[in-house]
Write a structure and sequence with these properties.
By secondary structure, the protein is mostly beta strands. It is built from three helices and 21 strands. A hairpin with a 5-residue loop joins strand 17 (about 235) and strand 18.
């Protein structure tokens, strides 16, 4: 009798389950147009002024890609730091469920750089000054050369002191200099006379850290340039091709030490090092 009741209840449960309507929870929503986008970028107000921390919000059913004055994010809701003032362009790119892409562009007003990490001040100078100049660091002994990737923190194999840079760099010489400017995040390199210059942009990524074989921080950030290199920013074993990406080994109020690994280099493979100081 008990078995009959159990089998009857089981059959009844199966009947109810079979009658339950099937819901497609993975159905693709309808695409929207750029005019339908509900996205905002709102500066955080500090002391009555629009600061450079910006709240991004996407209230639309699309995948997010933001570019807010050079600060990027792939989150629907995020807070980013902009390092420029004035009218700042914002571009939102949305990916619809059907794969179509829509874009909306607008601008926001940044009145003051209310938030600036110390690393940015060390590279671009204090906000009140707006720029910082670097020259070869003669106190380091060797200012340019190669050594072991993720091992050395200065030229350790083939080395050149400051005086040698007159022969190594015919364009800018041993007395060349670099100016990092916060407005527009630009980099200018020049020879001592100012008759040979090159200008482009430079971005600082303070999240791009690298660890050595012991798990210690070897590089604390990365500098990426466009249309310009640092002084003697070339790959000697690569036909002197320009180098546009540099690991930051030291960055403080007075020193800037950079490195670049040759393609494919592993630990203690060949890397190149640049040693600068504040002018």
């Amino acid at each position: 009798m008990k078995k009959t009741i159990l089998f009857s209840l089981f059959a009844l449960a199966l009947a109810f389950y079979a009658c339950e309507p099937i819901v497609n929870r993975d159905s693709i929503g309808s695409p929207i147009t750029a005019a339908d986008l509900k996205v905002t970028a709102t500066p955080i107000v500090v002391n009555g002024k629009n600061g450079n921390m910006v709240i991004l919000e996407n209230h639309s059913p699309v995948v997010s890609a933001w570019n807010c004055g050079g600060a990027t994010s792939s989150k629907a809701y995020d807070t980013v730091m902009v390092v420029k003032t004035g009218a700042v362009p914002v571009t939102f790119t949305g990916l619809n469920p059907d794969g179509t892409i829509i874009t909306k562009t607008f601008s926001i007003q940044i009145d003051a750089l209310t938030t600036l990490p110390q690393q940015f001040k060390d590279l671009f100078g204090e906000v009140a000054v707006g720029s910082k100049t670097f020259v070869w660091d003669e106190t380091a002994g060797a200012v340019w050369g190669n050594g072991g990737y993720l091992g050395n923190t200065s030229p350790g194999w083939w080395t050149n002191d400051k005086a040698a840079m007159d022969g190594q760099d015919a364009d800018y010489g041993s007395n060349g200099y670099m100016v990092f400017t916060l407005a527009g995040m630009t980099l200018k390199i020049s020879n001592a006379a100012g008759t040979k210059t090159q200008t482009g942009t430079a971005t600082l990524d303070i999240a791009a850290k690298k660890l050595d074989g012991n798990g210690a921080v070897w590089a604390s950030a990365k500098i990426t340039t466009a249309n310009v290199t640092v002084l003697k920013g070339v790959a000697p074993n690569g036909g002197n091709a320009p180098v546009y990406s540099y690991d930051v080994l030291t960055l403080n109020s007075t020193k800037l030490v950079l490195a670049w690994p040759e393609p494919g280099a592993g630990a203690w493979g060949t890397a190149w090092f640049w040693m600068f100081r504040k002018q």
